[in-house]
Specification:
eight-stranded antiparallel sheet; four-stranded parallel sheet; 2 domains; Thermophilic metalloprotease-like; 20 strands; alpha+beta
Length: 406
Amino acid sequence: MAGGVEPDELRAYADVVLRCGVNIEEGEKLLIFGRLEHSELVHALADRAYAHGAAVAQAFYIDDDIQRSQAAGAPTDEMAAYVSPWFEHLIDTMIDERWAWISIAGESRDDPFAGAPAERVGALHGALGAQFQRTIPAKLSWCICPCPNRGWAERVYGEPDTARLWKDLRFVLRLDEPDPVKAWYGRRDELASRAAQLNESAFKALHFLGGGTDLRIPLHADGSWQSAEFITATGRSCIANLPTEEVFVSPDWRGVEGMVVMTQPVSVNGVLVEDLVLRFAAGEVVDARARANVAAVKAQMDQDAGARRLGEVALVDASSRVGRLGRVFKDLLLDENAACHIAWGFGFEETIVGELPDDEAARSARGLNTSRIHQDAMIGGPDVTVFGVDAAGDEAPILVKERWQS
């Protein structure tokens, strides 16, 4: 980040993440997950966490090279996807002691797992992801946020211009506002209001049409549209993604039908998949094609039965600051907030009203998908119209040219 971000700007950014993101509480413990290239932001978050009353702030550094070596060199497929008991214990400790956690995005390399079998990389990431998933039903406070770095800048702009990347990130993170915290609370409320409108509409399904896409997604009978505001077990509000521009719901995976063309490249386990097209029948992906790296998608979808089913559908309109930049950031935290998207893999239980069975098979039988993975992919754009379908089967436009119709 040298030359890209002034220390006072970094501290101010850390304050926004701590206040709006995890909304840190007096006496709370905080764990920060990041890569080595994120260390300056990790340091700023830890330092400012104490200023906001944290009892302790610690870091866990992730090394893609080590993960690549495991996936490529482990003697068996089982060991290639091995997650150490001490890591499981770390997650147990976070849950038992109710730690807040922050995960930092911003990959510095294209295809950091090059040379490792896609099936093994997918299995390892699925196993690690399953551990992080355990924190969601525990309703801990959490947030994912980006960190500019030279490698990421080079991937986006073709040159390691961290200052340029930081300028774009400042815009999408609303750090250019006089009071970024107030701006984020305002955006949070706007998205919550939009989710409430969609819930009042009582649509039974969505229909995405245009640009080669003709996809019908039934909405869950007990589903409730949400924004990225997450309410913890103690009733505290946090914004789980910074930035966020979406409203989302977990659909009824069982009736998804049709063809969908991705409108942006999709990053899957570190590999950029271009021009991906999926065909759904009876709720499952039955065909996947792409101009490049479709093997990564197929390997991911082989992880378990739920990996071929939808767990999320999200709507994003033209007011999105990410979308307004018109840039592919090659990072799903940013790119998913540029356009409407779907995600195959696990669904979010917080979008379902009422009690859910603990058994995963029983949940799936009720239409809420279960899986070890969750993969976002962008399907929206000015050529794709989103319709709401009512109980009689009549359709009404929701988004036309990425603009809300009511």
